[in-house]
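Fill in residues.
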């Protein structure tokens, strides 16, 4: 396992300049596809594409499957149909399905015409199941035996079959002639059994299975609950369609947990690797939440305005009406980026050494997000229309419109660097980042607001 991902990315970047495929393959021969896939998002598309085209086809296909969705799509868009079809043909069926999901409908149909007819039919059959259902992830490469098969016969069959014949051999499934699942027993039990003992005598009939239309996350949590290596997938007649394996379950649960964590921090979208997302994609994941919270926090300003402008002893400077809105936007934007970076650090998607690249991305993201909120804030403050606007002088609107992007930029900068700093000094970023960012941005945000207002607003 590689610990210095940045150094490995530099190695890959140098390899991409070598045109001799033999040299590239020799260098990558002992490297796992997962490690290559983790480093590729740090490279330019052209560099990663050059590496993929010079790798062994089996390794390139495995790397593509392990890549984050957005990165995989960028490479697939550049690869010829014949190459993609070859990758799909050599991959296990569940991985082949996953790869076809990243293709456009038109291109997928064209590639299905190139691969062997049997594989194409299986892909179409599995894709007929609902999206996000377990049926799309099943593999038919499991060990199946008849009830009368003996221990010696099963072991001989396992030894004679090619290594790639089965995705996993931890469990052996007993099927009748119509593919109905009768029972299951473990490889451990098989190895300890008498040579003449039959599958029917070894199998357990108390079987836990799932239907193909069950949601992937629900099936994954069943595997986690029972500690299975795989769970059989049966149709409504009890016929076995395939197995849903623990590696797919682990990936699904990780994505689901990541989505939940990001949602708590006010970030929408799928659980994609941070470095695989463009700046615009980061903006689209954050601005809708910020805008929704912007509207909600305007209500607090309305309360202050109602009492602060009334004929009572609570009269206050109109600048105070916007404090909840501005401080709230700063805290929310800081929380978004802190949650994103903390989760990416926990998953190993980014390293502390990536701080400069992260800061550059976050600065651009903050400028765009803050600019959008600044325009909305200016219009909302100045607009002389009841409910939609507050009918304030242009100088007040300008102060709000300039403060919003300034606070978002500051909160995002602090929020992106704080988890990395905590990681470097040996503190768990999840423990101190969110509370600290809220407190710090509240105080510094007020300073930014009043400094801008003092130079613009003339009371």
């Amino acid at each position: 396992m590689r610990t210095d991902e940045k150094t490995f990315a530099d190695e890959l970047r140098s390899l991409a300049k070598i045109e001799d495929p033999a040299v590239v393959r020799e260098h990558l021969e002992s490297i796992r596809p997962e490690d290559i896939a983790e480093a590729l998002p740090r490279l330019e598309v052209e560099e990663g594409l050059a590496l993929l085209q010079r790798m062994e086809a089996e390794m390139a296909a495995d790397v593509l499957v392990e890549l984050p969705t957005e990165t995989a799509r960028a490479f697939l868009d550049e690869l010829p149909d014949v190459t993609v079809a070859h990758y799909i043909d050599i991959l296990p069926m569940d991985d082949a399905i996953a790869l076809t999901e990243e293709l456009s409908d038109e291109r997928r149909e064209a590639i299905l015409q190139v691969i062997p007819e049997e594989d194409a039919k299986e892909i179409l059959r599995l894709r007929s199941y609902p999206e996000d259902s377990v049926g799309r992830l099943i593999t038919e490469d499991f060990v199946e035996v008849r009830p009368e098969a003996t221990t010696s016969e099963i072991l001989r069959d396992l030894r004679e079959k090619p290594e790639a014949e089965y995705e996993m051999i931890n469990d052996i499934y007993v099927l009748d002639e119509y593919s109905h699942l009768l029972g299951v027993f473990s490889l451990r039990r098989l190895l300890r059994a008498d040579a003449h003992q039959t599958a029917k005598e070894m199998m357990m009939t108390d079987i836990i299975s799932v239907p193909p239309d069950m949601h992937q996350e629900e099936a994954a949590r069943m595997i986690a609950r029972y500690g299975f290596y795989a769970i059989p997938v049966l149709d409504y007649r009890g016929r076995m369609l395939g197995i849903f394996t623990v590696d797919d379950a682990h990936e699904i649960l990780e994505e689901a947990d990541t989505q939940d964590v990001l949602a708590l921090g006010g970030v929408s979208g799928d659980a994609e690797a941070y470095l695989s997302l463009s700046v615009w994609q980061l903006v689209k994941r954050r601005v809708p939440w910020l805008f929704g919270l912007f509207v909600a926090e305007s209500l607090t300003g309305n309360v202050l305005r109602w009492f602060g402008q009334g004929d009572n002893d609570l009269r206050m400077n109109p600048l105070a009406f916007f404090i909840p809105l501005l401080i709230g936007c700063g805290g929310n934007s800081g929380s978004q980026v802190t949650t994103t970076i903390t989760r990416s650090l926990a998953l190993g998607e980014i390293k502390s050494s990536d701080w400069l690249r992260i800061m550059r991305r976050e600065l651009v993201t903050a400028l765009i997000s803050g600019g959008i909120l600044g325009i909305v804030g200016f219009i909302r403050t100045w607009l002389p229309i009841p409910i939609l606007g507050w009918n304030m002088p242009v100088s007040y609107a300008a102060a709000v419109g300039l403060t919003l992007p300034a606070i978002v930029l500051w909160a995002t900068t602090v929020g992106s660097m704080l988890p990395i700093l905590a990681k470097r000094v040996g503190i768990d970023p999840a423990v101190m980042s969110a509370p600290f960012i809220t407190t710090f941005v509240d105080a510094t945000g007020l300073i930014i607001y009043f400094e801008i207002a003092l130079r613009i607003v003339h009371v």
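The longest strand covers residues 181-186.
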